[in-house]
C-alpha cells in the first residue's frame, strides 16, 4: 500500500475534517502518500486532485464541513462515470480509497470497487446515522447536540405561551436523529418515517395531556414524515390549541464537531488506514458495542439499519 486516496461524499457531517486529518496523518506516519479528491465523486470523474500531507491537514480537527468539498453526484451511478473514476484512480496509482460518507456514498464505492484493483474502505460519516453495521456514524452526536440546543430554546416559548410546537429535524428517509433528539429533549411525541401514525391518535394524546394539565408540548418530527406545516394546522384546528412549526434545517449539518464526533473520526480514520495497510478492502469501519471494528461493505449497503423501537418507547414513557 503506497498511495491512499480520500474522498468525502453525500451530505457534509461534522467530523469529516477530523477523519481526513486522521487518515492523512496515520498514512504519512506509515510512509504512504495521500491524495484528496475534491467535490465527492465528481473529483474522481473530473480529476480534481489535491495532494495531502501532515501539514495540509493542520487546524481542521475542530472544523465542520469538509475541506475537500462534497457533492451528490449522479454521474457516478452510470458505467461511463465509474469508468472515468477508475481511470483517474489508475492514473494516480491509488492503491486504496477511503470513502468518507453515508449509505449512498458506500453504494457508489461498492459499484466502483467491483471492477478495479483499488481497495475500498468506507468511513461512516452522516448525521442520519443510517449506515448498517455501525452503531454510530461520525457527525451524528454533533447534530443531536446542535438540535437539542435549539429545541431547549424553543421549549421556553412553548411553555411561556402555552403552545404546541412541531420541531422538524433532518432525516429524509430515516428517524435516528429524530428519535435521539426526541428522547433527549423530553419530547411529548416523536414522529419518524419508519412508524406510520394516525393524526387522530396525535390529537387524542394532545387532548389527554391537556386534561392532565400539560398546556404545551414538543413534537419532534423527522423531515421524512410528510407535510409538517399541514400537520401543525390540523393540530390547531382539531385541538383548538395554538400550534407552531419550527424547521431546524441545515444548522444541524454544520458546526464544530463534538468530542465524540472527533473521537470517532480519529478512530475510524486510523482503522481505515490499518485495514488498507493489511491489503483489506470491501470493508467499512464500524463501532459496535463500544469497539472499533470493520464490517463488510457489501452487507452494509444491502441491509437497512433497523431503528430501535425501545428508544421511542422509553421516550414515550418518560414524557408522561
Ligand atoms: N444506489 C447507488 N449506486 C451508486 N451510487 C449511489 C447510489 N446512491 C447514491 N449514490 C451516490 O453516492 C453519493 C452520495 O449519496 P447520498 O446523496 O445518498 O449521500 P450519503 O452518502 O448517503 O450521505 P447523506 O445521506 O448523509 O447525505 C452521490 O454521489 C450518489 O450519486
Ligand atoms: O438538501 P440536501 O443537501 O440534499 O440534504 C438533505 C438530506 O441530507 C441529510 O441531512 C443527510 O445529510 C438528510 O437527512 C436530508 O434528507
Ligand atoms: Mg444517506
Automatic annotation (TrEMBL):
Cofactor: Mg(2+)
Record Pfam families: PFK
Reactions it catalyzes: beta-D-fructose 6-phosphate + ATP = beta-D-fructose 1,6-bisphosphate + ADP + H(+)
Gene3D superfamilies: 3.40.50.450, Phosphofructokinase domain
GO annotation, biological process: canonical glycolysis; fructose 1,6-bisphosphate metabolic process; fructose 6-phosphate metabolic process
Ranges of residues in domain Phosphofructokinase: 4-276
Keyword Zinc-finger: no
UniProt cross-references to SUPFAM superfamilies, sorted A to Z: Phosphofructokinase (SSF53784)
Predominant localisation class: cytoplasm
Known EC number: 2.7.1.11
GO molecular function, one term: identical protein binding
Recorded metabolic or biological pathway in which this protein acts: Carbohydrate degradation; glycolysis; D-glyceraldehyde 3-phosphate and glycerone phosphate from D-glucose: step 3/4
Record InterPro entries: ATP_PFK, ATP_PFK_prok-type, PFKA_ATP_prok, Phosphofructokinase_dom, PKF_sf
Gene Ontology cellular-component annotations: 6-phosphofructokinase complex
Enzyme class, first EC level, given as a word: transferase
Subcellular location: Cytoplasm
Keyword set includes Magnesium: yes
Keywords, comma-separated and alphabetical: Allosteric enzyme, ATP-binding, Cytoplasm, Glycolysis, Kinase, Magnesium, Metal-binding, Nucleotide-binding, Transferase
PANTHER family: ATP-DEPENDENT 6-PHOSPHOFRUCTOKINASE, PHOSPHOFRUCTOKINASE
HAMAP family in the record: Phosphofructokinase_I_B1
Protein name: 6-phosphofructokinase
Name of encoding gene: pfkA-2
Amino acid at each position: 500500500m503506497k498511495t491512499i486516496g480520500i474522498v468525502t461524499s453525500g451530505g457534509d457531517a461534522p467530523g469529516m475534517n477530523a477523519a481526513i486529518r486522521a487518515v492523512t496523518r496515520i498514512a504519512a506516519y506509515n510512509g504512504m502518500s495521500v491524495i484528496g479528491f475534491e467535490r465527492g465523486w465528481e473529483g474522481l470523474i473530473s480529476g480534481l486532485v489535491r495532494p495531502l500531507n501532515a501539514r495540509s491537514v493542520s487546524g481542521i480537527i475542530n472544523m465542520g464541513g469538509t475541506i475537500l468539498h462534497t457533492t451528490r453526484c449522479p454521474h457516478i451511478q452510470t458505467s461511463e462515470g465509474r469508468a472515468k473514476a477508475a481511470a483517474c484512480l489508475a492514473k494516480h496509482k491509488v492503491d486504496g480509497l477511503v470513502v468518507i460518507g453515508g449509505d449512498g456514498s458506500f453504494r457508489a464505492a461498492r459499484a466502483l470497487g467491483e471492477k478495479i484493483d483499488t481497495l475500498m474502505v468506507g468511513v461512516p460519516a452522516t448525521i442520519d446515522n443510517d449506515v448498517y453495521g455501525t452503531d454510530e456514524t461520525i457527525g451524528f452526536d454533533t447534530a443531536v447536540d446542535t438540535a437539542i440546543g435549539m429545541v431547549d430554546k424553543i421549549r421556553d416559548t412553548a411553555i411561556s405561551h402555552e403552545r404546541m410546537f412541531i420541531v422538524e429535524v433532518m432525516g429524509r428517509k430515516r428517524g435516528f436523529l429524530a428519535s435521539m433528539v426526541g428522547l433527549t429533549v423530553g419530547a411529548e411525541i416523536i414522529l419518524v418515517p419508519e412508524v406510520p401514525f394516525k393524526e387522530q391518535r396525535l390529537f387524542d394524546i394532545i387532548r389527554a395531556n391537556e386534561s392532565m394539565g400539560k398546556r404545551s408540548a414538543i413534537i419532534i418530527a423527522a423531515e421524512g414524515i410528510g407535510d409538517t406545516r399541514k400537520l401543525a394546522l390540523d393540530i390547531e384546528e382539531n385541538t383548538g390549541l395554538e400550534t407552531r412549526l419550527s424547521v431546524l434545517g441545515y444548522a444541524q449539518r454544520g458546526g464544530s464537531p463534538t468530542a465524540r464526533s472527533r473521537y470517532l473520526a480519529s478512530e475510524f480514520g486510523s482503522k481505515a488506514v490499518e485495514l488498507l495497510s493489511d491489503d483489506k478492502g470491501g470493508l467499512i469501519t464500524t463501532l459496535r458495542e463500544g469497539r472499533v471494528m470493520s464490517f463488510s461493505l457489501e452487507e452494509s449497503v444491502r441491509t437497512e439499519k433497523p431503528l430501535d423501537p425501545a428508544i421511542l418507547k422509553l421516550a414515550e414513557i418518560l414524557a408522561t
